[in-house]
Amino acid sequence: MTKINAWNEWDPLKQVIVGRADGTMVQAPEPAIFRDWPDEGYPRGTYGLLPEELTAAANEQLDNFVGILEGRGIRVDRPTPLDFTQAVATPEWSQDSMFGSMPVRDVLIAVGTELLEATMSYRSRWFEYLAYRPLIEGYFRDDPAMRWEAAPKPRLTDASFKAGFWDEYEALPFEEQVARVRRGDLVLTEAEPLFDAADIARFGRDLFVQQSLVTNQAGIRWIRQHFPEHRVHAVTFGNSHPLHIDATWVPLRPGLVLHCGERTADEDLLQYFKVNDWEVVEAAQTSKDVAPPLSPCSRWLSINVLVLDPRTVCVEASETAQIDQFVKLGFEVIPVPFWDVAPFGGGLHCATTDIHREGDLQDYFPKRHGRF
Ligand code: DAV
Questions:
Q1: pTM of the complete model
Q2: Mean predicted lDDT score pLDDT of the chain
Q3: Which residues pair with 87 in a beta bridge?
Q4: Ligand 1 centroid to residue 298 C-alpha, Å
Q5: Atom of ligand 1 nearest to the CA of 103
């Protein structure tokens, strides 16, 4: 029997969804994003299924991860992939392909007893929730206290995107890109609320939501108004391509957050953590020199970890410096080979959505500071 219950990122994990690589696409271009991977066979404008042997390798690592979790008594649920090669449409637009159902973190988040479906902001991902509906319908049957919510379905007309954004943006120097990140002047307009669930980091009563390439200010405002019992903070970092908060600002246990140091945090955010007796630790150097191939993610998947409880963390097996750092911080580390999953949408945190963690709502930030 399922009971939706997850207030933070560290309480003991009892039930989790783990995505599947099956049928994942390099998606067709759309106003929000285009792919351009000529060396891997997908130059700009082309799209198609990721190669079968990569898909098989990713599924093997995903299944191995599932075995590790189940071996520790955690219940694991899996999505039902759709035919992601199909074109999709609403009355207002059509799109030549879908994407996949590996990074469930982007689509679904449990906040307490609520399971919330995010708006998403790519047309190729508009219907992705359908891969999770068989699970969600089952949860709803099981759990009389479940709050099942879906954020307003976005229209995603051309009015939601800045035309010509990418060509203009990619020509800017890093500092100017970061200045635009800081003021929320990226590809999304403010025509409607848009967010991916993976831009939300849960710290009990405090939710930190990153404004990013897939989350706009209206989206953060919607989250704030939707969770009146929480403090919902909009945050940005010195990252020119912000895409989900979970390789940037990573909660580990009460009082400890891991920070990707090359993505600077603003002084107010750092002070808010400090006055509330939280330690902000700069992550170890990633073992990777470059971003994973065929992937929108960066090399910082080294900190895209899944915390099983305040003493235990799953880390990508090749990230030895990061593993050493976790050991020094007092964690038992479970190394999980996962690099082959990266092209399918991310790391161990991206691939999961926690459904039940033992524990309740607590306030870890009793003191106010600045805008927080
Ligand atoms: O910063 O590399 C990784 C997470 C994507 N879901 C990054 C983002």
A1: 0.98
A2: 98
A3: none
A4: 6
A5: 6
Residue linked to tokens 């929730």: 129
Decide: 103 in ligand 1 pocket, CB within 6 A: yes
pLDDT in tens, 149-172: 999 999 999 999 999 999 999 999
Residue 36: Cβ within 10 Å count: 12
| Residues across the chain | 372
Band of residue 280 on the pLDDT scale cut at 50, 70, 90: very high
| DSSP states of 126-183 | TTGGGGTHHHHHHHHHH-TT-EEEEPPPP---GGGB-TTHHHHHHTS-HHHHHHHHHT
8 A C-beta contact, residue 24 and residue 84: yes
- Class of domain 13-357 as given by CATH: alpha beta
Q: How far is the CA of 349 from the centre of ligand 1 (A)?
A: 9
308 residue type, one letter? L
Q: Is 350 in the pocket of ligand 1 (CB under 6 A)?
A: yes
Going by C-beta distance under 8 Å and a sequence separation of 6 or more, which residues neighbour residue 122?
Answer: 27, 30, 32, 33, 99, 214
What pLDDT, on the 0 to 100 scale, is given for residue 18? 99
Residues known to be catalytic: 196, 244, 350
